[in-house]
Write a structure and sequence with these properties.
By secondary structure, the chain is mainly beta. About 19% of the residues have low confidence.
Amino acid sequence: MNEQDIRKYAQLMKELGLTGLEITEDNKVVRLERGTSAVREVALPAAADTPSSAGANVSAAADDGSAAVISPIVGVFYAAPAENADPYVSVGDRVKKGQILGIVEAMKLMNEICAEEDGTVTQICVANGQVVEYGTELFRIRR
């Protein structure tokens, strides 16, 4: 991606009031963020290595054997089904595949974030009510 393209996308971000934008082009990802001077360009893994986007969230293995539960959309994260309700999960909880871990609200739609496999919640990476972007790590689950 050349400088002219980056400037064009930066202008688009400004016009639309976006704080972040991710563009995939020629097997590379460019992420632009306003408010920081960060512009990263990274090569994507081969198509066979990319996680499936069909599920509600994507898990990626980490060095400690845990998997990251990633936000599939931009929205507001909620740890509980209602304001005064107990959270869906806490650190140390055992979860089963398909169990609801939290919710990401996008455009007035509540999107359930579910565990993709059995495990133990080792970390909750975001706060209740926090705005999350696509790819934000929400939870870490050890298998």
